[in-house]
Design a protein that fits this description.
single chain, 148 residues, alpha+beta, five-stranded mixed β-sheet, 5 helices, 34% helix
């Protein structure tokens, strides 16, 4: 159940403690066929990255991450949109490459690389839908369960 997965990942990523609001627009019937622990790792990584980006930005005191779901072609896509500063240009070319894709000083670039591998291992994917000065949107995708 994707709504529950996002709520749990938000807690695990420390959003509330950091003062970042998590707005979830995912219905209770949105279900993906994916390993729950692996999906949690993907979501926690994305939410933690968004939290850190927001905290380092001018929006630190009013950070928001919005999550919504969409179905298409047997897949369910979660869109995680933050109001941080977007990704640094230097990170975009190698975003999902280990040891080269980090946008953070001292970062290894492993988080997104591993998250994408986990999404793909579950029959889905992880893509960067957009990034700019008003934030970034990452979309983890997984096979959708039949509509209830």
């Amino acid at each position: 159940a994707l709504r529950d997965a996002v709520e749990t990942a938000g807690d695990d990523a420390g959003l509330l403690r950091a003062g970042v609001t998590l707005e979830i627009d995912v219905g209770p019937t949105e279900i993906a066929f994916a390993d729950p622990e692996q999906m949690n790792r993907v979501l926690v990584n994305l939410l933690r990255n968004a939290r850190e980006a927001i905290q380092a930005s001018d929006n630190a005191d009013k950070g928001v991450i919005r999550v919504f779901a969409a179905r298409s072609g047997g897949q369910v896509t979660l869109a995680l949109a933050d109001n941080g500063p977007g990704l640094p240009e230097r990170a975009l070319a190698n975003l999902f490459q280990p040891f080269t894709g980090s946008g953070k000083p001292g970062g290894t670039g492993l988080g997104l690389a591993i998250s994408r591998e986990l999404a793909q291992a579950n029959g889905g994917d992880l893509v960067l839908a957009r990034s700019g000065p008003k934030g970034a949107v990452f979309e983890p995708r997984a096979p959708a369960a039949a509509a209830a």
